[in-house]
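Our working data are protein records whose layout never changes between entries. An example says more than a description, so a record of this kind follows.
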Amino acid sequence: MFGIEDISSLIPLTPPSQQKLNAIEVDDMYPCNDTSFRRGGHGLFSTLDDYCRFASMLLTGATASGEKILSRNMHEMMLKNRIPPEQLPLKIGIAPLAGYGWGLGLWVMLDTGKAMGLTGESECGWSGAASTCSWVDA
């Protein structure tokens, strides 16, 4: 039987690589050229800590300290699928989201047996215009 020390010597270590953030032009992602058109989320900026707190709130409807932000009924309503079966599977870009529906503002897991990745029944999330993606799962 291997101990932790024995196994760690068998795993090749990859040295950390230089990380670089690249700006992405998102102007072409607008559905129209009307400069008065505003879509939700455009121009949303935050810290990683705040974003993580928001994602955690999506799981329970409450802050980390337990303060309710969403009522139980609203939280449950938000996570219910609103897309009729004949319009499924959803697609974001060219990839179908097999097993997912859409609630109030985010995708929701409907059938883990159809999902193409490891997930749970409480997963929900969304994709942003600048190739961002976030999800939560209890």
